[in-house]
Amino acid sequence: MFTFKKIRKLTTLSLIACATALSGCVTDLRGTGDLGIVIERANGSVLVIDNTDDTTLSRIEGLGDLSHASAVYSRDGRYAYVFGRDGGLSKVDVLTGKLVNRVIQGGNSIGGAISQDGKLIAVSNYVPGGVKVFDAETLDLVADIPANEGSKTVGLADAPGNVFMVSLWDDGEMWKLDFSKGNTPKITKFKDIGVNPYDGLISPDGRYYVVGLFGEDGLAKLDLWNEDKGVTRILDHYGKGVKKLPVYKMPHLEGWAVAGDLMFLPAVGHHELLVVNKNTWKEVGRIPVHGQPIFAMAQPGGRQIWVNFSVPRNDTVQVIDTTTLKIIKTMKPGKGVLHMEFTPRGEKVWMSVRDENKVSIYKTDTFEKLSEIKALKPSGIFFTDRAHKIGL
Fold it and tell me: pTM of the entire structure?
């Protein structure tokens, strides 16, 4: 016969057992907010890292040719979609450290994007050209959008409304791929935007799609809130009267730097950053820098712009104060600084130093080097906070 005392004892034991079981589960849980991946370009692998403790958690292998790889994240930050140069699209789980799925979707891909609702993954291709779109859950093909006579597609970016924007290198066109009504997109084409568009970006508010032109000085801009006005040219002939230098590596617009009312953009073939008023789209200044800029990236908050450079000057990073437009720090992290990534609130910056097989981590307020991790020919660094930003 159960007495009240026995029942109370059994209940207590049950509660202790449940609490123990739950505590065991809790120790196995973690969020994804401070995770990320580092591309190991020569090894076909990525490192999963923790940017709070500055540590490596795992290495995921079998991702193919990552010599020009980029990545986007699922809405929950758990899955990274990695776009390889060999046409591979890989889905990796940063929590388990495993390759979930991989498909070869083309012969030479150059980047990708994820839709606003997180359900579609788009990939742009050099070979065979065009854009392919996949289901984010299964990586099944959803849409195959060929370009004009196999033109290379570049500057692929997501825009609000389940829209992808892309440009055609060979044809000087800009396309809007609208998936808002389902998996058969409405395609709007804007022609004669300029010679050889090479990269594109979406403004942080999702309003403007801006494309850099390699075949001429200038950029092409589309206001997505006023598409009927068409594409307009900005910063025409910014290199007029100055001899253009050989371009050893294309600058990237993806990490365009915005600070207050100013934007900072790499000048193709010049040792300069262009300073542009974002309200008027007019040039308001130039900043001479160490070499040909590759990335000009704004620290979260916009107080600093960090710039890395093309070969042969790729051992250097410079920091610009956006209030004075002056260089306040020149650093020598090592040979082959390919990419930088800020922690979500900007207190640290990670730098891949390819030729020294390391990723170096610095404080952004004092420029003190905090630590480094080993990596095999590291290139792109992608933190999970990108999951919540338009155009990244």
Answer: 0.90
